[in-house]
Amino acid sequence: MTRTEFDSFCETLPAATNVVQWGNASVWKIGGKIFAICSHWGAGETEKISFKCSDLAYAILVEQEGIIPAPYLARAKWVQITSADAMTDEDIKLYIREAYTIISAKLTKAVRKELGI
């Protein structure tokens, strides 16, 4: 999944917002809380997609080739896809949608109401 495809998908999620930070990373948030990141570091490096996941998904995914605990975010059960063939685009979309759901569920009722979700 390219960064353009990543951004195009994330923008379809209700009330999701995007900022570019941390050295040109595309950071997607709901209610000010991050649920997915697409970053690109160094010449020749591929884009790396990171997202929040459930405890069970985290335990399974970090055992897969091309998926690692996300740097700086692993303690919060985030993974990073480091290889383009580690996961299909459809599976990435499913996990990003789940990350969005996990993070939006942690928002207060008032914030969810304000966002219309």
Automatic annotation (TrEMBL):
<dbReference type="Pfam" id="PF04237">
    <property type="entry name" value="YjbR"/>
</dbReference>
<protein>
    <submittedName>
        <fullName>MmcQ/YjbR family DNA-binding protein</fullName>
    </submittedName>
</protein>
<dbReference type="InterPro" id="IPR038056">
    <property type="entry name" value="YjbR-like_sf"/>
</dbReference>
<dbReference type="GO" id="GO:0003677">
    <property type="term" value="F:DNA binding"/>
</dbReference>
<dbReference type="InterPro" id="IPR007351">
    <property type="entry name" value="YjbR"/>
</dbReference>
<dbReference type="InterPro" id="IPR058532">
    <property type="entry name" value="YjbR/MT2646/Rv2570-like"/>
</dbReference>
<keyword id="KW-0238">DNA-binding</keyword>
